[in-house]
Amino acid sequence: MPFITKAAGVAALALAAAIAPTTIHAASAVPTRQEQAAQRITMTLPAPTEPNPVGTIAVRLVDRSRHDPLVRSKPYRELMVSLWYPAKDGGSLPVAPQMAPLAAADWDRHSAPPMGIAAGKVDWAATPTHARVGTPVDRRAGRLPVVVFGPGDGGPRTLGTSLVQDLAARGYLVVTVDHTYEADQVEFPGGRVVRALPLPSKLTPRVIAKLLAQHSQARIADMRFVLDQIAALGEGRGFGEEGGQLPAGLNGAPDLSRVGMLGQSLGGSVAAQLVHDDRRVVAGVNLDGGYVGRVAKTGVAKPFLQLAAEAHTRASEPSWKSFWAATTGWKRELRFAGAAHGSFTDLQVMMPQIAAKLPQVPVADFVGTIDPRRSVSAQRAYVAAFFDLHLNKKPTRLFDAPDARYPEVSLIP
């Protein structure tokens, strides 16, 4: 089940169920496999705001201190993460794709059709990022502030690429995390793909709440483990069991005094819980997620930023109202006119490109009516300004009043 439906609750679940995969009518001549590949839609992601090189590497992490919380018979928990960082010139090193090939193929078969995108119509593996694989880290500015990113429930870490590579170009080390057996698909080294556990046959509000609580608890433990691995990396002790394969300059790069959390949907709720619970986390950002668990009532005492879709308000979301009332630290809420839940993912720029070739794709249902370029530009500006302010102590006036450069964004008191 795509993250966009899981995370948004009963209404979005009903929406996804109602969208039938596109009907493909046979042509008079059956195209060859090469012709079919050539006809598939390809997409691009916006370049980072700052014209600085970015590097990335995907790493498998194994937590042998606990059984897998979602598959109890498995005696350890394994995760896939990607590290994004300011880089030296990558030269001839390959450009990283947004999605790994087998994960992209699985997304095409299982995750795209519920969004009205028929399998085989889009080449999901062909979207390039603006980062090169394994290029050395640029440490000229010293040690790097860290942001840990979590996607929406059921979603892959790759759908946060536009935002996280922008942060990396601005000088951040960003660690993106897939949550195995919850994410629709996770591709591990060696060509192994692990799919999400099947959902219950009846997704009532009570069942959904139970699933989100279970996933939230698993994610919190996952993120604590990832923070432990980042701490080891910052101390020069490598990163998990892949330490010998890290790009030059990465060992010792993280600045452990400047760590933030960033998450979309359920990832935003988990970000808030880690801001509350973990002394290592300085500040956090929630991209349009409702709050699950204790943090909905306790709020946080550290800096926190909420970005909201147009229809997501404290009046319509009880957990937002209670969280906001209890939060005592620096806080701001921004509402994006015309945005929907999926606007805070790469789908914001990808779905309009698909719809230009497949007009029946219900773009507005998933990413609203906001202009994609302006939406991404504003998200990048506000998220970067927040972390610059609270991790780098760089002053900004962007949160003091509405900004004429971003008329779609309202500052909610």
Describe this structure as you would to a colleague.
The chain is of the alpha/beta class and 413 residues long. The protein is built from twelve helices and 13 strands. The protein has a domain at 3-19 and 44-302: Alpha/Beta hydrolase fold, catalytic domain (Rossmann fold), CATH 3.40.50. Helix content is 32%, strand content 20%. The two termini are 35 Å apart. The strands form two sheets. Strands 3-4-1-2-6-5-9-10-11-12-13 form an eleven-stranded mixed beta sheet, with helices on both faces.
Major sheet size, sense and barrel closure: 11 strands, mixed
- Largest sheet, order of strands side by side? 3-4-1-2-6-5-9-10-11-12-13
What's the name of the CATH homologous superfamily of one domain?
Alpha/Beta hydrolase fold, catalytic domain
Query: Rg, please?
Result: 20 Å
Helix content: 25-40%
CATH topology of one domain: Rossmann fold
Report the strand count. Answer: 13
- The unreliable regions are 1-33
CATH architecture of one domain: 3-Layer(aba) Sandwich
Beta-strand content: 15-25%
Order of helices and strands: HHHEEEHEEHEEEHEHEHEHEHHHE
Helix run count: 12
Mean pLDDT: 91
> Which CATH first-tier class of one domain would you pick?
Alpha Beta
Structural class, by secondary structure, is: alpha/beta
> What is the rounded distance between the termini?
35 Å
Shape: globular
